[in-house]
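lol ok so funny story. i was supposed to be doing the assay writeup but got distracted and ended up predicting the structure for this chain instead. priorities right. anyway since i did it might as well share w the group, maybe its usefull for someone
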Amino acid sequence: MKRPNFQLTPHFSYDVMTHSAWAEANHVDNTPDCLQLAAMENVCRKVLEPLYDHCGPVQILSAFRSEVVNIGHHGLGGSKHLTGEAVDIVLPDDETGRAYFRFLKTLPDIDQMRFEYNRMGDMWLHVSTCLDPRENRHQVFPNYRLTYA
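and the output, tada:
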């Protein structure tokens, strides 16, 4: 089945925000409903576009995940990825990660932001913003990993 693709905002497409290599490899549908699609567009508008405008191109690791895809990614049951309200941003290096973090914590509509890591040492920035801004918790966790030269 061919996946649709269209721009959610000037720099972020539906395909980028719903892509999952795990879903493709396992032939699992990762199609959001209308409310999840609205939440994805909100994340693009409130988080990703301002970050793009401030720091330049941004690479997405993961955004929307259906329930099956979230399980495949070993995501938490209450993950904001399920509602389309979260995005994991690739960090090419620690310096870029810290720059992204410093900028994003100034935005008014952050629900939650934290660095996440896997066992292989990869790091990304998890950011969520709620479709209803009154639900944003404004939780920012500067849990940088320690690096050694």
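The mean pLDDT is 93. Residues 12 and 135 are 24 Å apart (CA to CA).
back to the writeup now i swear
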